[in-house]
Amino acid sequence: MEDHLARYVERVAHFWEAQGVPRIAGRILGYLMVCEPPYRSATELARELQVSKGSVSSMTRLLLASGSIEVLPRPGERATDFQLSPDSLEKKLLRRLEETVAFRAIADEGLDLLADAPAAQRERLTAIRDLYAFLEQELAGLMDRWRESRS
Question: Angle at Cα 94 formed by Cα 81 and Cα 24, nearest 5°?
């Protein structure tokens, strides 16, 4: 891999590592973002990223489960090729919206439990619920605007 691409792959890896994704998974994502052709087998990923096949195996399973990558069907080929899922970041944002909706509902439930409690006791939970309700609206609108911009 060329030096400038290797540096870019590491930058992507560090970004995702800060988000809680293992660094090798981030390196796989970074590489699949810039390699040509845009797919690689596990063996190629291990060789080109200079990591073990075992690491590639476990990290591709993680990335497949998260929807970040997908298997590229290639009839007649023995090796499994991986590529970025075309809508993986959109799916991540949709999952974030679902998580936001779920936590706002939990905060609402807590406020119902504290319906007769003094306002000071409800204050923290009210602030959390209000933030999540705001995020819920904004993320939903953001997804709508994103889809409109793509069509």
Answer: 40
Single out the residue in 34, 57, 84 at which a domain terminates: 84
What is the pLDDT averaged over residues 95-124?
Answer: 94
DSSP one-letter code for 58: H
40 lies in the same domain as 101: no
At 44-88, the pLDDT tens digits run 999 999 999 999 999 999 999 988 999 998 777 778 899 999 888
Domain membership of residue 137 as a residue range:
88-150
Read off the tokens for 35. Answer: 């390699």
pTM: 0.75
Q: Are residues 76 and 138 in the same domain?
A: no
